[in-house]
Design brief:
It is built from eight helices and eight strands. By secondary structure, it is an alpha+beta fold. Among the domains are: 44 residues; 121 residues, no CATH class. A three-stranded antiparallel β-sheet has the order 3-5-4, with no helix packed on it.
Amino acid sequence: MLKTIGRETWNSIKITLVLLALCVILYPLLVWGVGQLAFNKQANGSLIKDQQGNVVGSELIGQQFSMPEYFHGRPSAVGYNAGGSGASNLGPTNPQLINGNGSEVTVAAGQTPPPGGTPVAGKDNTYYVPGSYLGVKNYADQFRQDNGLPADAKLPADIVTASGSGLDPNISVEAANLQVNRVIAARKALSGNSATISPDKVKDLISQSTDGRDLGILGEPRVNVLKLNLALDAAYGKPPTK
């Protein structure tokens, strides 16, 4: 009996060691090797470098652009914080999806208003404090104002809604084209190389930064905002930091 138990125990140990070698050492090494050889760029984060060879970001993770000389990405419920990916988690029947997830805060008379709060009409000592998600209406109003568009201008859905991750690096081609006039005006004000900028040239850069449908049928064409802005800097120079 003891001999049988010992033999079976040793067989179990050998099987365990073989599986450990296969699953913990050989398989990860195989996957890593195939990734490095066949998909080197993707396996290392799809990193993007500037003209000097410095890593400035990833094709997969969006960044916050607010200067008028650059194209802007879609709204983010997490401020494009790659360490805290997340969405607004607001359903289509939730009014906060349209108006934002801010809240009203009432303080005692004479107390300091909450940071970022604006007085609510008709309610004493009550302030509206915006949340991390401003809502479709506010995003649409802001986009139209920033780009000099009419108040009733139709906008693509991606530019007024946050993505599920809050890190979407792409916008639709339509959203990019709606920003062309603003970018050109801001760049021309810098003079220098920017004096030669034109709608046709900028639209060419948009086309160069556009990826088509996956496998030719899935999704819609999309513009990588970081790539597009780097192309702008390469062609017309980097605007001074304000």
